[in-house]
Amino acid sequence: MDKQKKKTSHFPFRLNILFFTVFVLFSILILRLGFIQIVHGENYKKDLERKEDISVSNPVPRGKLYDRHFRVIVGNVPKSAITFTNQGFSQAEMLKTAERLAQLIEKNTDKITNRDKRDFWILKNPTLADAKITKQEKDLYTAKKLSDYDLYKLKLERITDVELNKFTKKDLEVLAIFKEFTSGYKFIPQIVKNDHVTAKEFAFVSENLQSLPGVDTTTDWERSYPFDTTLRSVLGKVTRSEEGLPAEQLQYFLARDYHRNDRVGKSQLESQYEEILRGYKAKIKNITDKTGNVIETQPVIDGRIGRDLVLTIDMDLQKAVDKIVEEELTKAKRWPGTWLTDRAYVVLMEPYSGDILAMSGKKLVRNGKTGRPEMQDDALGTFTTTYSVGSTVKGATILTGYKTGAIVPGTVFDDAGIKIKDTPIKKSYAYLGRLNEITALKKSSNVYMFHTAIQIGKGNYEYDKPLNLTNKMAFETVRNSFASFGLGTRTGIDLPNEQTGFKGQSRLPGYLLDLAIGQYDTYSTLQLAQYVSTIANGGYRMQPHIVKEIRRPAVGKEKLGPILKEVSPTVLNTIDAKEEWLHRVHIGFHKVMQEPGGTAYKFFKGAKYAPAGKTGTAEAFYDGPLRHRFGKVPPPVINLSLVGYAPSTNPEVAMAVLVPWAYQGKEDNKANLKIGRRVLDTYFKMKQGSSLTD
């Protein structure tokens, strides 16, 4: 009994000891928490209020452009640069930094406006600026009848020219620097100077960065063009550092993680492949406190320059073709009746792959300063301008006639002129006798094509009687067939702003006949190249492309990085033509250039590479830059064209030549044939020298 009582009396004592221990521990914890809250609470609160969502992207060079032989067409030239990053500085702080920086560098002041000077005068002279406001105006401001903007506007207006003229050259340099500081965005580096930064300036600024908050020295870049102006209109442009994102595409680029002062491709190839050429920027994260001050900078992503593009263009061939076009265009201007001639175009294309080997356009323009004509690159015009091309489309007309059953191989028509009631007679350049389709191509009979078009339209022709077409879809039939060759439709070239051409609106039967000889709708030089390639390769419309490969940037001493993507030949459609039909058109095209009586024989006879093709002469009306001189009635002109391929069997190159407004009247300068012969001669001569071998 006593033992049991003794054991019972020990239990409450131990429990009390336990409770007391827990009490002491909780007390210590509470005291510790209190100490932390009272002594270190403010510091921890500031830590929690840090903002870690501000990423800054540093620009990197764009990818390079190479020709098919891996020669640089567009590269990057490094240049020293001085930048400023606004980290939340006040105007007074930025002004002070600008004054220090102006002592170390020279800054161009050409872009300073009168308004800039007035704003700067107020910033530098706040007391004098306030004195320009009368007591009455201050009372109105107090009464809220004038706003801050109203008062500031009054100050601006009352600054005198005498006061502005007191600015020294150094003052204006400070203003120019300050203007760059304030034109940027918070935490985004802004270029202060990147043109002609001397080694001395770069060194001085680098040595004094501690006293120049926000200022840094870095390496910038600009595009370089080793081949000068060759193909420049197609290569495109990049915005300047002070230009930044194009205003019309601002939201598009901002949504893709660009900054407002980033440089981007703004036209043609640079724009089309922007996402590839731009590369990846280096990113850092600025950690700030609640007042916006940068506490720490952390790297997030290392930068990498853009991907490189290897083009299908052979720059040696491109330059040679450019020279030919320039020389023949200059010569053509010397002929009578050619004063409106001002441009010419050539496209060379591989018929089986769609590779564009050369894309040449030249235009004579008058220099606004000297008043003298000068040659300008207009390669862009090969696919952004369209013209009536004439008889070069007759191969498509014959094949359309086959497909619709309007003619069969060997069909013969008499070349006597076509006379529709109340319209002028429509005929060939001479009476050519009775012709089948092969001879019609060789001699370029218009009348044969007229009869083919009438049969497509299911018309019943009688001399000097109305012509009615029972097939109301005849225009659509011809145009859809032409489009299967690439005529009157987009070729699919990997460049922006391609034009399809003008389609005549009238449905009168006579215009269907004009359509069949290439004198109603308009086509581009590139469309002609795709069309003749389709005939040359056996009926496959290949998508033309100017980019051959996409590669990673080279590393170290490598000349080229590894291939990321190779552009494969793409068949857009087939023309659904029998082999026999194509064979007969091939024979006709061969006779054009290689048999006496062919319309191009005099210029291509003796060519060892056995070319085949079709000439074109179109009656048109001038619609060029001098049209304003002629009022509402532009003068009639002749457009010259030529399509071809070589060799005529197993062709390896297709060519299109177009010379708009080549002449007026009857004087034919044959510029299309002269250009075409020289271009094909040059291609095969260079091939023998291995210039075109991949």
From TrEMBL:
Domain Penicillin-binding protein dimerisation, residue spans: 59-298
GO cellular component: plasma membrane
Biological process annotations from GO: cell wall organization; peptidoglycan biosynthetic process; regulation of cell shape
Keywords: Cell membrane, Cell shape, Cell wall biogenesis/degradation, Membrane, Peptidoglycan synthesis, Transmembrane, Transmembrane helix
Subcellular compartments: Cell membrane; Membrane
Membrane spanning residue stretches: 12-35
Pathway(s) per entry: Cell wall biogenesis; peptidoglycan biosynthesis
Single GO molecular function: penicillin binding
Membrane topology: Single-pass membrane protein
All copies of domain Penicillin-binding protein transpeptidase, residue ranges: 345-680
InterPro entries documented for this protein: Beta-lactam/transpept, Beta-lactam/transpept-like, PBP_dimer, PBP_dimer_sf, PCN-bd_Tpept
Signal peptide from the UniProt entry: none
Enzymatic reactions: Preferential cleavage: (Ac)2-L-Lys-D-Ala-|-D-Ala. Also transpeptidation of peptidyl-alanyl moieties that are N-acyl substituents of D-alanine
Domain of life the protein comes from: Bacteria
EC annotation from Swiss-Prot or TrEMBL: 3.4.16.4
Family membership noted in the UniProt record: Belongs to the transpeptidase family.
UniProt-recorded name of the protein: serine-type D-Ala-D-Ala carboxypeptidase
